[in-house]
Design brief:
By secondary structure, the protein is of the alpha/beta class. The chain has two domains: 102 residues, 2-Layer Sandwich (Enolase-like, domain 1); 266 residues, Enolase-like C-terminal domain (TIM Barrel), CATH 3.20.20.120. 36% of the residues lie in helices and 17% in strands. The protein has 13 helices and 16 strands. Strands 4, 5, 7, 8, 9, 10, 11, 12, 13 and 14 form a ten-stranded mixed β-sheet that branches. A hairpin with a 4-residue loop joins strand 2 and strand 3. It binds D-gluconic acid and magnesium ion. The site of magnesium ion has 5 residues, from loops.
């Protein structure tokens, strides 16, 4: 069996999804995702210029050897661009493998460990009352877990994860158009003064059963994060996410010594080498990598297995920019993983998105039910794809009030 060709598509309804299709001489094809939010053309170029020419003629069933060829064979290893590009190939090869076996992908991992996988949504508010409405909205839809972010009184611009419009209680969509980033102003002291009591009020209003998550988005210094984490302990958060910049791993050692708040980190990691020490030293509780940015199913499954040995559970990244293909690959891992924790789930679910990626993965009552169709269980409509093209975007840039550049 041989790979006969591969195509890359960049574009989508409101998002630039990077979609890979690998064709074989037996008519079976596989789909993969290489979406690197706001840098989408880079993994697409890596695929087109280097990986695809080296893929033609290989046996698609040898997904491990192909992964090793591209990883070890590259000399300059890792990084989000390369890992997203391998990730897409790897995902597509697993799709082909499962279609050949006539089985849903989770069967190749070891079958189902659960029927549905719990997900969380993004509740947002320009102020606390607005956020409370947003939480109620998701609770009414059946969600058992929500991430909560709200505006901070006195903060000059809306902060991370917060809707700028009052009354906009639904998803906060990171949809910034244009290559020049917009700038936001951040004040850690205001945040640290306001957010712990806001979280306490949310717990008081919604009672003990709601799973409350909060994302600091890398904004605090290690000592500040430790103080914040200690202060929010009585709220019993499901997790505190990215309290400090993810590249300083010693910060989490310090945090652990001061607080028992569950810590989630890893959405910016792209390799097991970025997180093996955090996992082995049991400094985190949830690992947040995603399949498309961390080298595909082959590599992420290795991370999940290592995490399982150290009581670290999964909480895969699934922001609004994630393709339905990435979310499908994660749905299969979530169905199987003995150490599944939770899944972030914000797939657009618009008619346009469903037309581009037809699938029968099901989301109901705050749970995702994985498809039983052979392979990933998601298709890609190439004629729909012709409606879209690449549109440049950029993440905002954050500064302190005196102009000092800070972490987004
Ligand atoms: C999350 C993330 C996102 C990121 C985004 C960047 O927890 O979902 O922090 O909202 O900001 O994915 O591309
Ligand atoms: Mg996050």
């Amino acid at each position: 069996m041989k790979i006969t060709g591969a195509k890359v598509f960049v574009g989508g309804p409101g998002k630039n999804y990077v979609t890979l299709k690998i064709m074989t001489d037996q008519g079976v094809y596989g789909l993969g995702d290489a979406t690197l939010n706001n840098r989408e053309t880079l993994p697409a170029a890596y695929l087109q210029d280097y990986l695809i020419p080296n893929l033609i003629g290989r046996d698609p069933r040898n997904s491990e050897d192909i992964w090793q060829f591209f990883y070890r064979g590259a000399y300059f290893r890792r990084g989000p661009i390369a890992m997203a590009a391998f990730g897409a190939i790897d995902m597509a090869l697993w799709d082909i493998k499962a279609k050949l076996a006539d089985m849903p992908l989770f069967q190749l991992f070891g079958g189902k460990s659960r029927e549905g996988a719990m997900v969380y949504a993004h509740a947002t508010g320009s102020d606390l009352e607005d956020l409370m409405d947003s939480i109620s909205y998701y609770q009414e839809q059946g969600y058992k877990a929500v991430r909560v972010q709200c505006g901070i009184p006195g903060m000059p611009t809306a902060c991370y994860g917060v809707s700028e419009t009052k009354g906009d209680v639904k998803n906060y969509i990171t949809d910034f158009r244009g290559i020049i980033p917009k700038e936001e102003v951040w004040d850690s002291a205001l945040y640290m003064r306001y957010m712990p009591q806001a979280l306490a009020r949310i717990r008081e209003r919604f009672g003990p059963d709601l799973h409350i998550l909060h994302d600091v988005h890398h904004r605090l210094l290690p000592r500040e994060a430790a103080e914040f984490a200690k202060e929010v302990e009585p709220v019993r958060l499901f997790w505190l996410e990215d309290p400090t910049p993810a590249d300083d791993q010693d910060a989490l050692k310090f945090l652990r010594q001061h607080s028992t708040v569950p810590i989630a980190i890893g959405e910016v990691f792209n390799s097991i080498w970025d997180c093996h020490e955090l996992i082995q030293n049991e400094l985190i509780d949830y690992i947040r990598v995603c399949v498309s940015l961390a080298g595909g199913i082959t590599h992420v499954k290795r991370i999940v297995d290592l995490a399982a040995m150290h009581h670290v559970r999964t909480g895969f990244h699934g922001a609004p920019s994630h393709s339905p293909l990435c979310m499908a690959a994660q749905a299969h891992l979530n169905a199987w993983a003995p150490n599944f924790g939770i899944q972030e789930y914000l797939v657009l679910g618009t008619p346009e998105c469903d037309a581009l990626f037809p699938s029968d993965h099901r989301m109901e009552g705050g749970m995702v039910y994985v498809s039983d169709a052979p392979g990933l269980g998601v298709d890609f409509d190439e004629s729909e794809a012709e409606r879209y093209s690449y549109k440049p975007g950029s993440h905002p840039v954050v500064r302190l009030e005196d102009g000092t550049l800070w972490n987004y």
